[in-house]
Queue: 2 jobs
Job 1
Amino acid sequence: MKDKHAHPIGVFDSGYGGLTILKEFVRKLPEYDFVYLGDSARNPYGGRSYETVHAYTLEAVKKLFAMGSHLVIIACNTASAKALRTIQQKDLPGIDPARRVLGVIRPTVETLGPVTKTKHVGIMGTTGTVSSESYPIEIRKLFSGFTVTQEACPMWVPLVENNEIGTPGAEYFVRRHLERLMAADPEIDAIILGCTHYPLLLDVILKFTPPGVSVIPQDNIVAESLTDYLSRHPEISDRCTRSGTVRFFTTDSAKHFDELGTIFFRDPVRSEKIVL
Ligand code: DGL
């Protein structure tokens, strides 16, 4: 940030998906300053190892801290699944224990209680998020007697990033993964969309979701959760500045980020390129 007195809320994603979350942050908390960092030079993170996702995410968090953020939201399920805990427990105490880094998995899981009657829940996410088992682990911490079935959807992120939303190709892959999930456990009555890209596929997903099954996208949930967090933690919210600014940074071409980012943010995006 050029203004050294600005303390924007940092929002990080491997690339573009976090823009769906940022959109809701800005809608619910328009008075706050936000800075978005998309590591589009190295995305997608979905198939990468723990070590790599942790190393990349930590670099991004440090960059957002250097830009003045005291609070950073990891608006990416893959990074939340594979890097958040280590950053919170091992890295942050040595960097600045007064700063906060939060993820998207816990707030999403917290909403499950009233949504499912059968207590059979489905999770759709990237291969990395699914193999980390982060969702089943968080669900078991908060609820007992739940049956959790996961389905990795490695094609869904590329479909969104290539603007194939709503095409026959997108319908084929959305339907295929939903059918596989429901075949694995026909008692599922709630499906978490555990990837920040998936709100863009919501219409197609709803088209192929069996009646009586609730679909839970994250954008709104995570924004509600941040609003609640800021009201419960004045010691953090007082350290976030409020001039209503939103700035975008990418690790790759700004022109490409702006073109694709506009699809995710549903408003014009003007980014600057940075090096981590
Ligand atoms: N947006 C990321 C997530 O929520 C998926 C994109 C990626 O694989 O980098 O998991």
Note: The mean pLDDT is 95.
Job 2
Amino acid sequence: MPSTGPAILPQHVAIIMDGNGRWAKQRGLPRLEGHRRGVETVRTVVDAARAIGIRYITLYAFSVENWSRPSDEVSGLMGLLDFFLKRELSNLIKNRVRLRTIGRTGELPANVQRELARVIEATKDFPDWNLVLALNYGSRTEVADAARAYAVAVANGKEKLEDNSWETFSRYLDTADLPEPDLLIRTSGEHRVSNFMLLQCAYSEMVFTPTLWPDFGQADLQSAVDEYGRRERRYGLTTEQIKAGAK
Ligand code: FPP
């Protein structure tokens, strides 16, 4: 558990990027145009995160539920993902940003899987900055997959059933190598977490902004980080305990 007390700079910010469709609708444009603008925001936010000093940024780019959208929107999103990976490779290398993923990426189209593998391999040794894309991700499937992997490990004698604890079990989640998000942001005025990192966000501070994702920029990220800085993280303790320096 990270230390208690006043929150300073979040190490890990997770974002539910919402509002692309409404942004497009307000302008009489097709939904995909909103997603296209959303991709530009992704680049802006990754750059802004580095400028602010946020080491991990996780973006909810495609949920397990998103497959149920109209098929042209799904294929449009996959096309944008492919485009983003091709375009951003040199930029990620230049800025020494490591790309990682969470979610069932093995179910994504083959071309997207190929591009992902290429970018992940090319950036795997960068230690400082991390962009995590949640792709074909949902907390419930992640937990079901982890429970299965954990059961297999117990059956193989790799884990002992009596050692079950959050520390042990969380090693089977997609996020095993990532710190828990300190701050969760959702854009577009919705106040839900929608099956996103439900266990990992157990103690995350949450900031909801009415700004639609295509309009979100460095100032909005900074303002969420400033809001985070005004929060007190207590992890179940009292303010008095924290003031007294309890860990
Ligand atoms: C939510 O907006 C957004 C998504 C379901 C997809 C997010 C995808 C991108 C920003 C582009 C692809 C990402 C990368 C990393 C290349 P919505 O469509 O639900 O908006 P609405 O609620 O206004 O309809």
Note: The chain has one domain: 12-138+179-246.
